[in-house]
Amino acid sequence: MKKIVILGASGSIGVQTLDVIAQHSDKLVCLGISVGQNIDWLKKHLIHHSYKLVVVKNQKDRDELSQLFPLQEFDYGDNGLLKLAILDEADTVVNALVGFAGLVPTLKAIEKGKDIALANKETLVVAGKLVMDTVKQYKVNLRPIDSEHSAILQALQGNSLDEVSRIIVTASGGSFRDKTREELKNVSVKDALRHPNWSMGQKITIDSATLVNKAFEVIEAHWLFNLPYEKIEVVIHKESIIHSMVEYFDGSIMAQLGSPDMRVPIQYALCGPSRLPLSGQRLNFNILSQLNFKPLDESFYPCFPMIIKAAQKGGNQMVIVNAANEAAVQLFLNEKIRFLQIEEIIKECLESIPYKEIMSIEEMVQLDHAIKQSVLNRYKETV
Ligand code: NAD
Ligand code: MG
User: Fold this and answer.
1) 203-218: average pLDDT
2) What is the CATH number of domain 2-145?
3) Which of 11, 193, 296, 329 is the 20 to 30 Å CA partner of 161?
4) Percent of the chain residues past pLDDT 70, beyond the cut
């Protein structure tokens, strides 16, 4: 029996993880969950489920929930989250938090010998080297919950990484792929949140529209599979049917295909390489008449080359990019800035904050906080 805790259980990945666990109750059990501020969801959920530990963000919510469910143990805040990440009885942590907030719980869980099923891509984006070194040091497994990295992992089965000539990460192009740069000036939040193929949390949906998400996925692939950036390519594939590909020295390409459904990579991260049954839509090649591909247009998606360049520079650069992006996306979602200002804010932060080589985790946390505060304060009064 795999004993799991889920950080961020009420979100898009969290809820789908609970579904996968429910479909395999003979192999998987969930011992604890955390939720941010989605307390209505939690109240309904706890009518039918109980856990060793349930963590929420705010003390006030913890107090109210403790009254409503007196037999359930609750905790709150960052300390509560860490307590859940290192829960004694658990062997696997599913990290489905959004943003930098996922980093420290991931590291603490690894240090306690937990396996990690990682959806929280910001963890690898800001601290890929530190995280992968810690994974090696504590001899745990870290498996990706992302359709692209899961596809790569699956396409690598039975083959050697040493014989890979390149990996090809597919990208849907996001909500605005059919627009012009001129049209992007006035797009609304509602339009940005309408992703053509996937239903996901708000932040990643905006990151898909700016292609920040794809740059992050290239960085994740670099750390997960220990491949140089030169061997990682991106192609626009609007159907999101091929989830990514691996090309070997002999020219053979292994791809993983399927209907867009995050429960497939979630299940593979928890149970792979075994192939367990999973309900869901199957591909019908009689209806699917064509698959389309086109090159990534870097002038349409300037965040992509900017972020890859920053990642190659290393040091504090990805902490800067990530913090600037998180703050900018929040401002955009709150209608304080326009869509194209997201890329401007990332660029400004990269240009104005000095490069620094080695960073401790404490320095990363500080820098992340300082950048977010400064960006959010700057646009606080904007309407
Ligand atoms: P979401 O917004 O739907 O859910 C996030 C969850 O984290 C919620 O349960 C929320 O309550 C909780 N949370 C957020 N901030 C918190 C905090 N500070 N403390 C405690 N809890 C907090 O997000 P999502 O779409 O499920 O994405 C989660 C992660 O997975 C992201 O890093 C995203 O990039 C990645 N991812 C998502 C998808 C997808 O299909 N949704 C696909 C690939 C990767
Ligand atoms: Mg993805």
Assistant:
1) 98
2) 3.40.50.720
3) 296
4) 99
